[in-house]
Amino acid sequence: MRGKKAAVGIYTLSGKPRWACAMCGMYSYHKYSVKRHIENLHNGIGNIVSFID
Length: 53
Fold this sequence. Notes:
The protein is of the alpha+beta class. Helices cover 21% and strands 15% of the residues. The radius of gyration is 13 Å and the shape is globular.
């Protein structure tokens, strides 16, 4: 595994997830990441909700 970075997962050093895709549950700390996810995977059809909802 020398020279390769281990996958950290969705949690990052910046904190806990704050936003989620209402269609599939994908979540991220950054709202723009969820917005991009909805545009790319759900053809722009979907809602962004706060993770605690």
